UniProtKB/TrEMBL annotation:
Coiled coil: none annotated. InterPro entries: Rab-GAP-TBC_dom, Rab-GAP_TBC_sf. It comes from the Eukaryota. This is Rab-GAP TBC domain-containing protein. Residues 1-97 form the Rab-GAP TBC domain. It holds the Pfam family RabGAP-TBC.
Length: 155
């Protein structure tokens, strides 16, 4: 059905973005569906899975998640990874039965965990630079770690 490929692709794209539309409404910024709430959920997710790293980032070095996670979430990680890796991530976002937002938050948390050692050794400046210029990563391993976070949350 090559003739329907463009329409099917557009439908998938609209479905993906419709789940994130509330992040772009200023009136919803402070609501439970706005971007601030989503960033807070990411912070809580990290705290649940790696409290030491959460404490170092948010309390010791005062790296507010809004400084890096806003771009990660609103641009669906397209600025952090090359095109092929972004497609792999988006394929995962679209195919996860828990939905794209939950999957995105797990991927973002996994990104933090993968650079944990460097973050724990860093100060405000070095950590912010690292998170705003995320290093090249093995996407398959990143998605594996993100998937493990799902199973850890279930147990």
């Amino acid at each position: 059905m090559a003739a329907a490929a463009e329409a099917d692709s557009f439908f998938c794209f609209v479905e993906l973005l419709s789940g994130f539309r509330d992040h772009f409404c200023k009136q919803l910024d402070n609501s439970n569906v706005g971007i601030r709430a989503t960033i807070t959920r990411l912070s809580q997710f990290l705290k649940e899975h790696d409290e030491e790293l959460w404490r170092h980032l948010e309390i010791t070095t005062k790296v507010n998640p809004q400084f890096y996670a806003f771009r990660w979430i609103t641009l669906l990680l397209t600025q952090e990874f090359n095109f092929a890796d972004s497609l792999h991530i988006w394929d995962t976002l679209l195919s996860d039965p828990e939905g794209p937002l939950e999957t995105l938050l797990r991927v973002c948390c996994a990104m933090l965990i993968l650079v944990r050692r460097r973050l724990l050794a860093g100060d405000f400046t070095s950590n912010l630079k690292l998170l705003q210029n995320y290093p090249p990563s093995n996407i398959s391993h990143l998605l594996y770690v993100a998937n493990k976070l799902r199973s850890q949350a279930a147990s």
